[in-house]
Amino acid sequence: MLRMCGLMGIGMALALAGCAPKESKPSRASSQRERDSILGASRLPGAQGVRGALGASDSAAARNARLDSIATQR
User: Fold this and answer.
1) In a domain, 2, yes or no
2) Nearest one of 46, 50, 44 to 32, comparing CA atoms
3) Structure pTM?
4) Which bin fits 44, alpha (ψ -120 to 50), beta or left (φ > 0)?
């Protein structure tokens, strides 16, 4: 009986802990691009690869913008 009450008490404590208010979000969430840019600027291993991927992404976006502008001129 005492063991059963102890288990119920632990179960209720866990249930109440799950109902605690969640932490508020930061005032400004950074975008994936901003996080990647910060990582690319660091001296961490693989940062050079991140910089290369960002450069390739920029190049592809610029190319697509040029193709879109050509398509709208016709």
Assistant:
1) no
2) 50
3) 0.54
4) beta
